[in-house]
Amino acid sequence: MDQDDLTQIAMRAAGLAKKGLMLKLGAVGAVVFLAGLLVLGAMPMGSTAVASTCEDTGPGTGAAAPDSNNSPPAQGSVHQQQIANAKAIAKAAQKLPGRATLIALMTAMQESSMINRPDGNLDSVGLFQQRPTMDWGTKAQIMDPAYATESFLYGRGTNKGLVDVANWQTKPPGDVAQAVQGSAHPELYAGRESEVRTLAKEAGIDLGHGGTDSGAGSTADSDTASGDVPSQCADSATDTSDSGAGGTFTDGTATWKLTNPRSIEDAIAWARTHSGPMSTNGWYRRCLAFVANVYGWNFSGVSYAIDHYKVVPADMRHDGDRHPPPGALMYWDTGHRAGHIAVYLGNGEIASNDVKRLGYIDIVKADFIERTWKAKYVGWTPPYFPKAG
Q1: Which residue of 90, 181, 199, 314 shows the fewest CB atoms closer than 10 Å?
Q2: Is 319 helix (H, G, I), strand (E, B) or coil?
């Protein structure tokens, strides 16, 4: 076999290989072409998909299933989820005037389309797209609509809330939302007002109610039991049906007549009875409300714990004194706006909220607040409530 024969054989082999490759490519192309025809055939001729007319068949419209991070499953269609989440926000905000609910709804609609999302930009999650790494709480906590709403309204950890925004009741809603969220697009919140008003009406949410809390405010850390400090303790009304005689209170030198519904002895007994295992939940960030309730009042009439120290007459204030009589009110500067207040029970003990369990009342040593929260002791006063009711 000479060189020419070898050359011809090589050329024939190359030609066959090329032909085989072309046949394979042609077969693949045919499959793709047929698939394309099927897709085109499924589309209505002469129509264009429009967002406003698309049927809701996206995530959350079928059977619910928990996500990989154990966040709550989405239930129902997107619109049904929006209605449910709007109601949850309104319930969490019901003590504040309806304007607070409106602003919270506008914020949630802009941040998450009112969907309780398990993900978002960076580590943002939930209705308000709050971040665990930014001190808003754990992911599981933020995915709880009530918790997330309370955080937005009252602040959480180092983050301020709606009630911390000066003149939030009269400022444009979008400006208040931006003051809390710190968005890169502050102009977008205001555009949600009309949309959420319509949604609120459909959900039966009253955006014009007055509320029982003026909204002067409170925030608290997400884990006071581990040693963080409630940044603010606000008062809010809590019903109490007990009554008694106020009696008098003395520091050994001066004596003051009290007008509280409960006497000192009855108040201390009430505080002990409602502490520890007998405590009910609902006292989260409400130290001033608790001490007022201890003495039989529905509310103190003052927004911040540390401000109550200032409304008490000067001759009743015992700055820095560490020998309060049983029944006295003790005050601490926590480094935040509102400070903290607790009832002194005697024997070096106080009854206070959020010291062992968030939202509950427990009895601890009076120096717990300084040791664990690193707060500064201010002093004590008699249980005097000049603005209570």
Answers
A1: 314
A2: strand
